[in-house]
Amino acid sequence: MIETSGLRKAFGDFIAVRDLSFSVQPGEVLGLVGPNGAGKTTTLRVMAGIIPPTSGVVRIAGRDLAREPVEAKQQLAFFPDEPRLFDYLTARQHLAFVARLYGVANHEALAQPLLEELEIADRADQLPAELSRGMKQKLAIACGLLHSPAVMIFDEPLTGLDPLGIRRMKDSILRRARAGAAVVLSSHLLHLLEEVCSHVLIMKRGERLAYGTLAQVHAQFSNGDPGASLEDVFIRATGGSES
Amino acid sequence: MSSAATARALLLLRVTSLTGQVRSRLARLRQPKYLAGAAVGIAYVYFSFIRRLQVAHSGYGPGRSGAGLPPELLGLLPDLGALILFAVLLVNWTIPRSASLAFTEAEIAFLFPAPVSRRMLVHYRLLGAQLGIISTALIFTVVFGRRSAFGGNLWFHAAGWWLILATVNLHFTGTAFLYSRLLNRGMTSPRRKRASVAGVWLLICALIVWVASAIRIPGPGDLASAHDFANYAAAQLRAGPLPWLLGIPKLVVAPYFAATGQAFVLALGPMLVVLVAHYFWVLNTTVAFEEASIARAGKRAARRAAVQQGDWRGQGVARSARRPAFRLAEHGRPELAFLWKNLLATSSLFRPRVAVVVLVIVLAGSGLLVSQPQLNGVRLFAVTMFSLVLGMTLLLGPLLARQDLRADLANADLLKSYPLRGWQIVAGELLTPLSMLTGVIWVCLLGCVLLLPEAHRVLLFNPWLRGAVALSLAVIAPPLVAIQLLVPNAAAVLFPAWTQSAGNRGERGIEVMGQRVIFMVGQVLITLIATVPAALGAGLIFFAGFWLVGVMTGALLAAAMAFLVLCAEVSLGVLWLGGRFEHFDLSA
Questions:
Q1: Among the four A43, A164, B49, B249, which has the fewest Cβ within 10 Å?
Q2: Domain identity same for B399 and B490
Q3: What range does the domain containing B375 cover?
């Protein structure tokens, strides 16, 4: 569903992502973790087609993102860490706008249950300025889910949510993965990732340090300690520093 | 902590903040965009103002424009200055507001919980405001300097401006304090608050009516010559309540208008009394300014955050939901979705319903004016206004109507995640300002065509030819506006850092002014170059058509040619910019 091979992204002399390859199959949830400046957000933005890679290939649902960007993006939803919304559009107008761009038929019938699931139905006619950060996050998620994407990319999806919101977000991600979506998400909240992810990719300075199922990565870095958490694994894998 | 120690700490904060500000402004000159901006800005200020100022004060050259005024009118300038000042202060009184002082969020965080007295905080803010006031006074001295035929010198003018602005600043602060006190002192009922504001407004209205009733409408004799007008104006300024009302404002502006050193010193005494009185007024009006100051700082911080997040105009957020201009169907061209979306960001005037009403008014109004020869003056005025709006829309419209990529660049990541090609996003984004400006241009053209006087012998007044020319212009207008819109949109994508600093209203300094000048000149230059092929093609077709099929058909064929060339240019521009947008990365 998501395949990346030899992904490299350079900004001038600075290499943000080096030779990164991995794949995410339908039903899998890949957690992208790494210290600040590891290249996680750059990787996600390249995968979402927001910035082109310097080299390498990204395939979304079998479509090459560079050659068939429109068809690939049709299958994709990207959720940035900071919800990006249009100041002058109400929640409902956001959904109408997105529905037109993705060609979603009968969007009103689809939007209502989505708004209710995310508990923003009563705010549907309000502008982003009238919504809390958590509400904005939910609206951005509703916009992303409206076209039933096969691939979902979340950058720090749990930031700004209250405990109940975090629980619901986790459930929502798991439910969609079980329904066959391929999900990639990055977060610094490792104990939460541990509950959601089936796979994990640890990055540092743009390079892949570890990649595999949670059990595989655990086995690689737990030093035989069966009680080691993902946090312990992460610290051992990265050497406990950013540099 | 003793008050002297507090004062020293606050002074240290002010001085170190100022030093840091100057240092960072100088440091940013290492970036080419600021260095180039500074060079152009300095050149612009020098050639536009300072050089003229020098020439004016040397007594030679065109800069001495104030000398164009007759002596009778020159003598009235202090009275007129006092009248303007009085009007400004009166308007200030019409705006009820809470007392607030312009603290930054950091100042609030550190100073409000600190053991610093209210009086000290007010002093700190008043001192802080002086820097901005001095800068403004210097700018005003340079800008208004050439109107210096009433004498004096640069230093008197600068000091005069500073005294006026400092007094106005204190007066505004005092008014806000007074309003706060008036509205908050035991007045819990909104109705009573409204009644107090209404009372102030009533007083102001009564004052205006009193002044207006004492003023005589000028007759033809009063406008016969500058001398007659000066006599008339002098009589009005010295009649009725005006001499009383302008008494104190006259004292405030007197140093600025002082012609000699002695006159300046003599004017300074009474002026300083007014200034000191204002100072004590502000200082002794006990009012809680903290809450409003926090809200004010919050707004400033939100604006700055909006700029940092890519909303380069720092407009922040919308206040209320608007009704869409049209219903967005589920299927159709995605570009139209951008038109629908961006129209929501415009004033509700830009709606089809309003367009129909305007059209009906223009048609009906034109019909009435044409059928009534006694209304020829109004007709001429209307034509002039339509022409002016038409010209302004063509020249400035694309710079002012920014409901396109420039406004949406903060959401570039979101736009790029949509299943659209770059050119589709660019085309969609251009549609809103394009349709708004085209609508205005077409209405103005229609007004001009209907209202221009008919005279078959004068070429442009021939109704048929006039119709052909208007139709030609109406056809050319959309692609011409689109080209002009492409330029600033391309600049935003190609030079985001430049656009960020030049387009941000909060950014100040001569280097930012220089950047704006560079953008403006670039915009005009590129638009001119882009219109050359269309003008050449249209010119050739027109002259060929003129000889072969007549002037009117020639004009229409030329317009069609220009339209095709401009459309081709716009298409290429949109495709190219779309490609650039696909590779655009604001974070890089």
A1: A164
A2: yes
A3: 332-582
Per the CB < 8 A criterion, the answer to whether B512 and B37 are in contact is: yes
Integer angstrom CA distances of residue B177 from B182, B184, B259, B326: 9, 10, 36, 46
ipTM of the complex: 0.86
Contact B328 A100 (CB under 8 A): yes
User: A151-155 and A76-79 as β-strands: parallel, antiparallel, unpaired?
Assistant: parallel
* Dihedral (Cα; B470, B472, B475, B476), 10-degree rounding: -110
- Coil, helix or strand for A179? coil
Partner A, chain B 368-427, Cβ-Cβ below 8 Å? 408, 410-414, 416-421
Q: Is residue B289 domain-shared with residue B341, that is, in the same domain?
A: no
In chain A, what are the domain boundaries? 2-75+150-238, 87-148
Query: Rounded to whole angstroms, how far apart are CA atoms A168 and A112?
Result: 18
* CATH superfamily name and code, A2-75+150-238: P-loop containing nucleotide triphosphate hydrolases (3.40.50.300)
Question: What is the torsional sign of CA B398, B402, B406, B408?
Answer: negative
Q: Is A167 exposed, middle or buried (0-12, 13-18, 19+ CB in 10 A)?
A: middle
- C-alpha distances (whole Å) from B20 to each of B16, B24, B25 are 6, 6, 9
Which of A 124-183 lie inside 8 A of B, CB atoms? 125-129
Pair (B292, B380) in one structural domain: no
Nearest CA to B387 among B334, B468, B444? Answer: B444
Record the pTM: 0.74
Note whether residue B68 is domain-resident. Answer: no
The predicted-structure confidence for B409-461, as pLDDT tens digits, reads as follows: 888 889 999 999 999 999 999 999 999 999 999 999 999 888 887 655 555 56
Closest Cα in chain B, distance from residue A153 (Å): 11
pLDDT, average across residues B66-78: 70
* d(CA A163, nearest CA chain B) in Å: 27
Does residue B464 lie within any of the structural domains?
A: yes
The percentage of residues in chain B with a pLDDT greater than 70, rounded to a whole number, is 87
Distance CA B506, CA B301 (A): 11
pLDDT of residue B437: 95
Amino acid B420: pLDDT: 94
Residue B176 lies inside a defined structural domain of this protein: yes
